[in-house]
Amino acid sequence: MNLRAIRALVAKDFTLFFRNRFFALITLLGLVVYVALYFVMPGSVDGTLDIGLYAPAWSPAPDDIQQKGLDIHVAESEDDLKDGVVAHDYVAGVVLPGDLVEKLASGQNPQIDLYFASDTPEETKEAVASLMRELIYVQTGQPLAVDFSTQVLPGPDMAGQQIPPRDRLRPLFAVLLIVFETYGLATLVTEEIEHRTIQALLVTPVTVKDLFAAKGITGITLAFGQGALFMALVGGLNQQPVIVILALLLAALLVTGIGFLIASLAKDMMSVLAWGVLALVILVIPSMGTMFPGVITEWVKVIPSYYVVDTVDRVASYGSGWPDIWQNLLILLAFDMAFLLIGMVALRRRFQ
């Protein structure tokens, strides 16, 4: 490859990109807005505990079960209770047995089932158990011994690590910044195809490989630069920075391949916008899982950006290391190679 030609093409692409007022403004504005949104959002968790309660043989009065700092919801069934815990609607689910009153009257120790999500702190579990003892005392007028059966519902075990809402949004903002560059790269390539600039360049000693190398460097630099700068500003690089940077770099490779693919399909700027919106919506979906745990199911793993979001979230928020996320990076690399190959093949056919 002609390194001098590649450097010249990259410099030209950056000049053309920032000469476009729309992309220049959106690039800067997006970064500023996302950083500002991060810092204005709550930096601590809500102290109110939402407790789900299923008591088929007991109908507690609202005044008896509502206490300061607690919000207790009566579930219609045990399955609904479990679903609420998995979806993080409740920090805990409590099931009172149907023979609770009879066992209490006979002096037996009834068993109360407690359900928790996998990321529930130990202190919360202890607080819920104490709460149930107090509720039983309110109803009976005397302290009674009860047995608790604690069950942790399926999910990644991240106990003891409550995450503030703004930190849950870090992966979403980073992905939005990176994915948006598919517009910029696809627009840049489409304009050059429309104006036959690329065809003119290929008449010179510049080769197709030089073109792809230059466009790839431009796309990766723009996407990775914004994502890395955002994570640095909001503290996303405080833990395992090498892993986070590598994940963002692989994400930039991914959107570069998608940008090539969009440019090969788009006929004009409106086509770029239409395909870009579709790509943006699909790639952002996995971020919903960090904002609303339990909402997204296993099917989301077919979306490549899932492995970026999951890696960034687990490393930046929970301190996961290489043994925990190497598979994510490997799968993401495979997606990168596939989209880059498909995008370059499709775009080369359009060059010719």
Fold and architecture overview:
The chain has a five-stranded mixed beta sheet, sandwiched between helices. Helix 8 runs parallel beside helix 12 (241-265), helix 8 packs antiparallel against helix 13 and helix 12 packs antiparallel against helix 13. The chain is built from 16 helices and five strands. The chain is an alpha/beta fold. The longest helix has 30 residues, at 322-351.
Query: Low-confidence spans: pLDDT under 50, at least 5 residues?
Result: 157-161
Count of extended strands: 5
Strand order of the largest sheet: 2-1-3-4-5
Q: Which percent bin holds the helix content?
A: 55-70%
How are the elements arranged and paired?
Blueprint: H1 3-19, H2 21-40, E1 49-54, H3 62-65, E2 70-74, H4 78-86, E3 92-95, H5 100-105, E4 111-116, H6 122-140, E5 147-152, H7 165-168, H8 170-179, H9 181-194, H10 197-203, H11 208-233, H12 241-265, H13 269-284, H14 288-291, H15 305-318, H16 322-351
Parallel strand pairs: 1-2, 1-3, 4-5
Antiparallel strand pairs: 3-4
Helix pairs in contact: 1-11, 8-11, 8-12, 8-13, 8-15, 9-11, 9-12, 9-13, 11-12, 12-13, 12-15, 12-16, 15-16
